[in-house]
Amino acid sequence: MSDTLPDNTLPRKTQQPPKRSLLGPATLVTAAFIGPGTVITASLAGANYGYALVWALLFSVFATMVLQEMAARLGIVTGRGLGENLRELVRQPLLRWPLLLLVVAAIVIGNSAYQGGNISGAALGADALFGHLPLIQRWHSSTGINLWALLLGTLAAVVLWFGQYKLIERCLIALVLLMSLAFIGTMLLTKPDLAALFKGAFIPVIPPGAILTVVALIGTTVVPYSLFLHAAGAAQKWPKQQIDTDTALKASRQDIAVAIPLGGLISIAIVSTAAAAFFGREQQLENVAQLAQSLTPLFGNAATWCLALGLMAAGLSSAITAPLAAAYALSGILGKPLNLKLPLFRLTWLFIIVCGVLLASLGIRPVSVIWFAQVANGILLPLICLCLLLAMNHALLGPYKNNHWQNALGVLVLLVSLLLSGRSLALAFALL
User: Is pLDDT at 21 greater than 70 in this prediction?
Assistant: First the structure.
């Protein structure tokens, strides 16, 4: 364990009053976990089990808020990201380097593989909206390359290239609001069964065969790279040199209380839409494209367009946050400043975006890399939860370390992370 923190970790008085905003770094977390994977998982949950598993989404929102509050508090109090704090927390070389290498493997390499899915999901939504245009049809027929993957990957790179945290945050806030309008609008158009929805939210049941879906719903929300993203984002949003720590923590908690539940509401809207379109019907849902196509005869074109727009926003938001989180994690682990314009930072996120664009535009699915990423993430999640709990109980955090209730909630989430880890590893090794 480290016994020293930089001098600038002491609380400072506000030099300039922080701008009030309901949405901030927690929006990056929402943008990260509402991606194509969540859309697919929530759609299948609604199609197969109706509203019965909505309670699992509520629990996942609760667990995410517990972990993200700790990560944001750590970033604000120390002025550093989670990667930098891990370097300070774990000083024993036999433990330190395996942990840091695992973070690189799970987040940098893993996100390179998953980025293809993020961009493919965004491209699927864009194609549903604009694929009928003659220029797009001619491009696809003549080249066989997914034009939307190239355009959306380029857009993600442009947002990150400017290297301004405020710009990135504003873009992601816009995408989260767009997702909210699209998916919640789709849910309203499909006229959900409100009685069944509230019953599924507050009366936990696990229908036969639904246990893996429950774990998957939680696992698509509670993800390790969001902790790196949030800690670094909070440290940059509320710099210690400018904003009093107590003021920053209050703003951060308000941010979390709005942004994370908003993400949960989006997931519930997706479950509700799929339940209205498929649950209790003979037709089985196999993919999100099928869900979008099925909405037109049932609920009209508006529902299909809203779902496609939401899917495009979900894929694009994750296509921005996944490379950003990887760059934060790698820079922090290597002890480099979290400067978005430094060469290492830019090379990290650029590598991940290029990998995602190539995989999505050429239709390649890197099975072996995804398998490796599943194993690495399955091991990493409980380890990061444990390290975060240890960090939040360090004496050097002073009055900002965890209290008994925060530790109790943290241990509960740690136990859940062990369940998610077991599920991820079981699925990965089942592919062998």
Answer: no
Query: Contact at 8 Å (CB) between 311 and 303?
Result: no
Burial 111-121 (b: 16+ CB within 10 A, else e): bbbbbbbbbbb
153, 146 contact by CB (below 8 A): no
Does position 55 have pLDDT exceeding 90, yes or no? Answer: yes
Q: What are phi and psi of 146, to 5 degrees?
A: -75, 105
Per-residue pLDDT at 137: 67
Q: Are 218 and 416 in contact (CB under 8 A)?
A: yes
Query: Which token pair is 8?
Result: 């600038």
Nearest to 283 by CA among 268, 270, 272, 293: 293
Listed residue (94, 338, 49, 107) closest to 226, CA to CA: 107
Q: Which pLDDT tens digit goes with each residue over 290-299?
A: 777 777 776 7
| Segments making up each domain of the chain, as ranges | 20-430
- For every residue of the chain, which 3-state class applies, written as one string? CCCCCCHHHCCCCCCCCCCCCCCCHHHHHHHHHCCHHHHHHHHHHHHHHCCCCHHHHHHHHHHHHHHHHHHHHHHHHHCCCHHHHHHHHCCCHHHHHHHHHHHHHHHHHHHHHHHHHHHHHHHHHHHHHHCCCHHHHHHHHHHCCCHHHHHHHHHHHHHHHCCCHHHHHHHHHHHHHHHHHHHHHHHHHCCCCHHHHHHHHHCCCCCCCCHHHHHHHHHCCCCCHHHHHHHHHHHHHCCCCCCCHHHHHHHHHHHHHHHHHHHHHHHHHHHHHHHHHHCCCCCCCCCHHHHHHHHHHHHCHHHHHHHHHHHHHHHHHHHHHHHHHHHHHHHHHCCCCCCCCCHHHHHHHHHHHHHHHHHHHHCCCCHHHHHHHHHHHHHHHHHHHHHHHHHCCCHHHHHHCCCHHHHHHHHHHHHHHHHHHHHHHHHHHHCC
pLDDT of residue 287: 67
Taking the C-alpha atoms of residue 53 and residue 36, their distance in angstroms, rounded to an integer, is: 19
- Candidates 187, 181, 217; CA nearest to 49 is 217
Q: Which CATH class is domain 20-430?
A: mainly alpha
